[in-house]
């Protein structure tokens, strides 16, 4: 699948512009390899460690690009988002770097460690009820009262462009990779990664890794339209969002397949990341490795020739208590 | 303290030779920074992530140098060591790379994960009783029966030279650092690091980080001679060895001070490594950060000007169960 002429919300140019805009603020994350994990998987694996990104996840790239894209007048009014996850902390940190206010709407049931990150980075926490409706309404109220710019976690060209900078780095660090496996949730990460990677190397394969209990992307690809789910059920708390209008066309056209894995596979992969790679990942961050190790990937003849595989370890923000409880099950 | 003319068991030349010998086998480990940890410590910190080294610890550098220093005739008879720790796995892995046999004498009470590493890397495990005497006698028996070369974990110039390659990398990655903080146990790591670093930059300070419950190096420095302890008591299972005849003169002359920390400080630092750096370290690996955060370091006027500090995260091999038990206390 190649990048066609259709106008997406981002493209290689906007991704290169993003890189120029954010490169002095972000970490260029290391690419790690492990002969032990190569032996276990039967492939050569290259781990792009976005868990080492500032804020503990790739989200800082997009947040940084969005915030430094604002003109001074807009920026002076601050930014707002509703998120219980890594985007919230990333936006707070990027706003702090620009010296502007960030209003972060967080549902009351959000994990403690993610709230702490927002507070540590100077974000103004505004609590909402746990429903999506309450979160959106609270954000809209803040936006109306303050004039702050809403920065959506993924359904935004600036965010997609920022996340796409990962591919630019990855293909410089390992130009020979033939496949990239990317966690999928709302699709901001994989949209940016696929756009950049396939523009540079149309032959490269981009595969999504998705939890079985939140498999809206797999269902959407199968149906040829955005499918949302009445509920989700997965240990990967960062992968519960659904595709949006800007990410769907990119996922539809450029993502070669969606590999779904269950909680057991995710936790096993997370444990391998700790014990062999020595990298602290959150469940969502380990799902790419889970996909490579899954039977559905290993036995699929279509992926038999995927030998040099980039895996994006997307984030590392996890309460150690929660981690332990998943390992103990 | 500068490198004087006395002949130590290693020097900058032997360390550079080691680098040439092992560079195609080892990982050049990344140097990581964290603004959050800089803010907490009040210094600029550069983490040399040897937990990402093959075998999960810096030990692979020395083991590799020792094994590839052997002539073919010696090598054909294999190598032997007695160790329950990271040196054992490192030696097994290096022997595997050279295609020779490694005999690893392991006491019956060794941590399960460390035994697994030895087995995974193809080492031949030979069980001994838990006393040092039994371990040494068993190793001697193996040596006599097989003709294998004994490779001591630290009291060996080849090992010291191999560990010293860390400084060559570190000072290329961050030439401006003014201080290096290094875990100390038998002294192989800090001897190599200090020899290389002070040969390149005589003004650089090298500080040892040592558990309060195994503070033989601090006591040795104070007494001006090797002091051993009747027993040790620390969560840092990799830091229970005592200085040897080859490491002591280097530690005596080139290590500027020994900072001791207790279990609580080590566990707190380990937790920060997981939660902020996203790096899975073992207790021994986190002790350099514990030292930087300790009151005895912060309030000592001698270290007031240590502003750009390299910290060696020496290893990451820990049973997750053990880890959790320490966090829960």
TrEMBL record, chains A, B:
What GO terms are given for molecular function?
ATP binding; D-serine ammonia-lyase activity; L-serine ammonia-lyase activity; magnesium ion binding; pyridoxal phosphate binding; serine racemase activity; threonine racemase activity
Give the protein's cofactors. Answer: Mn(2+); Mg(2+); Ca(2+); pyridoxal 5'-phosphate
Superkingdom of the organism of origin: Eukaryota
Keyword terms, alphabetized: Lyase, Magnesium, Pyridoxal phosphate
GO BP terms: namely:
D-serine biosynthetic process; L-serine metabolic process
Q: What EC number(s) would the UniProt record show?
A: 4.3.1.18, 5.1.1.18
- A Pfam short name: PALP
Residue ranges annotated for the Tryptophan synthase beta chain-like PALP domain, each copy included: 22-296
Q: Which InterPro entries match?
A: Ser/Thr_deHydtase_PyrdxlP-BS, TrpB-like_PALP, TrpB-like_PALP_sf
Which residues does UniProt call coiled coil?
Answer: none
Which family does the record assign?
Belongs to the serine/threonine dehydratase family.
Would you tell me the protein name for this molecule?
Answer: Serine racemase
Q: Which organism is it from?
A: Gossypium darwinii (Darwin's cotton)
